[in-house]
Amino acid sequence: MEPILEVRDLAKDYPGQRALGGISLSIPQGSFFSLLGPSGCGKTTTLRLIAGFEEPTSGEVRIKGQVVNHCKPYERNVSTVFQSYALFPHLSARGNIEFGLKRHGITDSAARVAEVIKLVGLWGKEGRKPAQLSGGERQRVALARSLVLTPDVLLLDEPLAALDPKLRKQMRAELKAMQRRVGITFLLVTHDQEEALSMSDQLAVMNEGRIEQVGTPEDVYFRPCTRFVAGFLGAVNWIDGVGIRPEATRIAREAQNHGAKSFPALVTDSVFLGDCFQVVVRLATGEEAVAQVQHSSDVFQPGESVHICWNPADEILVA
Amino acid sequence: MKLRSWFVLPTWAWMVGLFAAPFAIVLAYSFLARGVYGGVERPWTLENYQRLLDPLYLTILLRSFGMALLATLLCLILAFPAALFISRSSRHKNLYLQLVMLPFWTSFLVRTYAWLFLLRDTGLVNTALQKVGIIHAPLQLLYNDGAVLLGLVYGYLPFMVLPIYATLERLDPSLPEAAADLGARPWPTVLRVILPLSRPGIVAGAILVFIPCLGAYLTPDLLGGGRTVLVGNLVQSQFTTARDWPFGAAVSMLLMLLVTLLVWGILRRESEQLT
After folding, report:
1. Cβ–Cβ of B180/A72 closer than 8 Å?
2. Domain that holds residue A99
């Protein structure tokens, strides 16, 4: 199937620095795709180039096969949910939602507006100004305002960053459910790996203006191509040249020999995290490693001599 | 007295000595009778205020309001695009702001005289138009309402540009982006998003332009040539040629009362808008 959004060798230079170093992406119709990376990795620049707020230095952006490099934002059928939401403070929630429809000359939109207000769960609050809404409600207005236009691609720039942690987790599930229901392609930019892993069908991990890896959440988590990807998606112990996730690392009092790798180590710290203990050990080589230990198993004290072990199948092999 | 309270003392002394006291004197004068050679005499009277009801003076007051309103409107029409341009320019922002403020480097009187040299029959504008052959006799550019309006707009334009610029500068840059993103072309973005959101700056600028225009005396005197009598000229003439200080004081008091009520009303409405 033809991808709805394609980016080819897209590069963006700012005076004195290269923000984006020629990336290529292909995003399938109806999918939830994430750009994941640390701040300054070029993910927001990519989003702004797709939205049309900036023009690329080289490369192309294609929407439904059409090159849109020189199209203004109002000439592209994509819509952005801004990190700050960028709601119009002088308009009510309804006024914000109707804004785009009116600009497109759609006036008999009452049913469509009502439907989207229900979809995002703003029923009864559509008459309020943004200042009278909570953070979560503002975000719903921002979503509704874009969704009502049924864009080819909905661009979301760190949409959950401004919410408190509890609401953030709830909105993750809601956002994913909403995307499935409306069937619109979502392109999410985030620096939060949990967010990207839990919501995306596919994600691209970016670093220093380049894409390090594209794949499903399982792909990038379990089979990262680079040390950067492995480390960015979760904690990794680097022991003896291989990577191993803390949750796959076990600690035992005796050496293991049923096909498991095992190294002697010294417990240096043990931290209670609620659902598990985080045990830090130091190997004879001086390398440090972290293991997540369940409550049911033994309690390890700092200073104890133990063995750190894992299944070779859980090893992360990177280039 | 605390040290902090001492800091505000100079301001207090200044305001009491040079604002409150003169205000009280003018207020008292407005209730007295005129002296034969200027000045004031007893008894206390309300006659000065009764005289204000004369259609002659009401007309002058109304004309002044109309003129000030028109000048404010013209300033807004000129200032908004300029402020928007400056706030959107990246490199030469400071240069443009300096240019807006450049006229303040010279006295208002000198600048108003400069307009005389430009607009008079043998002035630069008429000479140039005649040389080019567009006109054959000099145009009457001076000593009419148009010249006064021009002078007022010229004089107070920066007071409109700067507050609007300040508001636009604080505007979240993602708002115009969001408008474009939702399908708004540049004009609708300006009219539906930027203009409504620069309201606080427009209100501040309108107050800063309207009030001095309402009481303007120098501009109508020089560019209007005495033919265009505004309320400022009325006050001036009462204290000088007419030697009727009490009536001049009464006109001043009425003007101050009207301005105070107007500004109070506007600010109250604006603060309601915000909540």
Report:
1. yes
2. 5-228
